[in-house]
Amino acid sequence: MLLLLLGIVLLHVAALVLLLVSTIVSAWTVNPSTSSDLWQNCTTIFEQYTCGSADDGVWIQAVQALMILAVIFCFLSLFLFFCQLFTLQKGGRFFLTGAFQIFASLFVMSAAIIYTVMNNEWVPQTDSFGFSYILAWAAFPLALISGLIYVILRKRE
């Protein structure tokens, strides 16, 4: 049972780390001279590295808000898991923890979908998606799977 709990916590922490990295790191779209993320656009011109704030469109603000909500809900879900681990009665299910984690996965999925759809309007065709964008998509199934595991999981002695 201890190994199962350790595996669930490691899965949850992995999803949380992926969410944090994909929200903070500047690599949602990249090319050899520029990189863009949710917060800023950086360029390299004649070996001079400069950064400016990201586009202030409504869609990028929605992506920012959804990614922040995903991180918050994932963190709260981990906190609720530890709280429920000590307060839940024997045989009880971790519904609240699972619901928060599933919401986190839906938030990151929605953010990545909005970014994918709206990316074509403001990013040149020479740019490609960066590793932070890929990490956001990787965090989605991890968070969803851990949320479903929490819903199924029963507390035992």
From TrEMBL:
It is a multi-pass membrane protein. Pfam families: PMP22_Claudin. The chain crosses the membrane at residues 58-82, 94-118, 130-153. InterPro entries: PMP-22/EMP/MP20-like, PMP22/EMP/MP20/Claudin, PMP22_EMP_MP20. PROSITE patterns: PMP22_1, PMP22_2. Residues 1-27 form the signal peptide. Keywords: Membrane, Signal, Transmembrane, Transmembrane helix. It is found in: Membrane. It comes from the Eukaryota. The keyword Magnesium does not apply. One of its GO terms (cellular component) is plasma membrane. PANTHER family: EPITHELIAL MEMBRANE PROTEIN-RELATED, PERIPHERAL MYELIN PROTEIN 22. Belongs to the PMP-22/EMP/MP20 family. This is Uncharacterized protein.
